[in-house]
Automatic annotation (TrEMBL):
Species name: Spiribacter insolitus
Name of the protein this chain belongs to: Cyclic pyranopterin monophosphate synthase
Pfam families assigned to the protein according to its UniProt record, in alphabetical order: MoaC
Function: Catalyzes the conversion of (8S)-3',8-cyclo-7,8-dihydroguanosine 5'-triphosphate to cyclic pyranopterin monophosphate (cPMP).
HAMAP family documented for this protein: MoaC_B
Matching NCBIfam families: moaC, PRK09364.1
Stored Gene3D superfamilies: Molybdopterin cofactor biosynthesis C (MoaC) domain (3.30.70.640)
Active site positions, chain numbering: 128
Amino acid sequence: MSELPHLNARGEAHMVDIGGKTDSHRVAVAEGRIRMSAEAIEALQQGNLEKGDALGTARVAGVMAAKRTADLVPLCHPLSLTHIDVRLTPNPDDLAVHCEVTAATRGSTGVEMEALTAVQVALLTVYDMCKALDRGMCIEGVRLNHKRGGRSGEWNR
């Protein structure tokens, strides 16, 4: 077997066998943000977007994306999430919307990919709903900040 667990003995990518791992409570927290024009963030905050409630829609999109991560990311195990929290916070002083996602499961593999996927899809949804006002928006800083559970224990950025 290769030193990289996602490669099999032939050096090919494969899904790692997690059958022997112990179930535990696992949590991951990820974040990112989308920068936008003053006009776009003002319309978003006032609820004046043609497409409707961008923040509410983005929260739902983030939850849905976390639940479908295994369908989107090759070799990612399908998980039964026990909790997913998508928080979107407009910051007009910074001309950005910050997104933080907490994902949790009780299982034999972590939820980092679910948290990261939820952040990206939530921010893409904000982009889609605000693009009529600003096509130059920029999604940035998507990263894992915390994970807990499993053999590797706790990690903090």
